[in-house]
Amino acid sequence: MSSDAARSSRISGFRKYSVSQRRAEVAEVSGLSESRFETWNPESGLLLDQADRMIENVVGVLGTPIGIATNFLVDGRDMLVPMATEEPSVVAAASNLARMTRGTGGFTTSQTDPLMQAQIQLLDVTDPEAARLRLLESTEEISALADSQDPRLVEVGGGVRDIIVRLVPSRRGNYVVVHLVVDVRDAMGANAVNTMAEAVAPRLGEIAGGRPLLRILTNKADRRLTRVRGVFDAELLGGPDVVEDILDAAELAVADPYRAATHNKGIMNGITAVVSATGNDTRAVEAGAHSHAAAQGLYSAMSHYEVDREGNLVGTMELPMPVGLVGGATSVHPAAKTAVSVLGVATAAELASVIMAVGLAQNAAALRALATEGIQRGHMSLHARNVAVTAGAQPHEVDQIVERLVSDGAVRVEHAVELLNELRA
């Protein structure tokens, strides 16, 4: 990512702005026309006829709130980050913790090459060890056949990078499993590798002397990793004692799968929101991330925390991040295209970097809340707005009802109705 001094994601008081004021600010920072944000209007975003071409049996469109996370500095570049989520506190929490990294350099990322894999399962192979070697001896032929399925991908620098052959024992016998390792460039890559797998499967069966069955990508994208590192200012977090408590809270997730499940869910709160906003495959990203969390045989924390020499909290994370800017909903969903434009990313690697930064910020925010006031206080303050609206509060009444719900410690619809009746009496 290149630095852009004119673009700052540090917008003080952004949460207090009206929707129109926020759009004006985002337009100014991103350099986009405010008219671009019309794709985020319910009445002019994803239209029914567009939805009907995306999936089958369409009967409607489900809306999800899109918020803008502020304060993100990723690889030296300020980013305003669109996040699509229905859960209160996610956008605010990520923005707040991103603010705490700005003085220490923000988030720093790195990646492996964008390698995705397809698997071809071969059955009824009588000599699997010898078949494995025959397949490896045919690497050049197999690679050329696969590459011929997508000349455009090869033209832009992608294509097959390796052929792997595994012998997988099972209760039903031994399977020979061939992996096509493919550089998919700026695509998520599922369509590309699936097409290649189907094309080479018959030839693999001939070479191995077996019958091809499954021919599909694996979402265990452990060769397409993105790494992120962030340093959170200790004083802004609340001081050395808070940092120590965060370390203990994080360590429980490393050691205990029960805690890890919730810990990692918090990470995915941030990751999935950006993946969804940009039209990428949330299920593929989630499957890859959770499988990576169990790579050592025990489901564990996706993130890790330490303290640097200045006493600041250092968070790190490494996950598969199979996202793209080419193909899929990212290229056809109008709201997703607007989200990508706001981010200003030009490659899938840049998008992956932002997503990982948001995931780490969200995780650090949850740990800080747990180590200090508890998760419910901040979360319920925002949830109270939903409760007030559900109870029938009008826009000019919401803030008063929310304040009372929180101060009374009773964020419930029935209590909100009582407060509304009292206010209107």
| Share of residues in strands | 15-25%
Helix content: 40-55%
Rg calc: 24 Å
The poorly predicted ranges are 1-5
Average pLDDT, all residues: 94
Principal-axis shape: globular
Major pleated sheet: 4 strands, antiparallel
Structure summary, number of beta strands = 10
Class by alpha and beta content: alpha+beta
Span of the ends, CA to CA: 57 Å
Number of helices: 17
* SSE order, one letter for each helix or strand: HHEEHEEHHHEEHEEHHHHEEHHHHHH
| Strand ordering within the main sheet | 3-8-10-9
Quick gist of this model?
The protein is α+β, with helices and mostly antiparallel strands and 425 residues long. Strand 1 (66-74) and strand 2 form a beta hairpin. The chain has 17 helices and ten strands.
What features would you describe in this structure?
This protein has 17 helices and ten strands. The chain is an alpha+beta fold and 425 residues long. The protein has a four-stranded antiparallel β-sheet with strand order 3-8-10-9. A hairpin with a 5-residue loop joins strand 9 (303-307) and strand 10 (313-320). The N and C termini lie far apart (57 Å). The model is unreliable at 1-5 (pLDDT under 50).
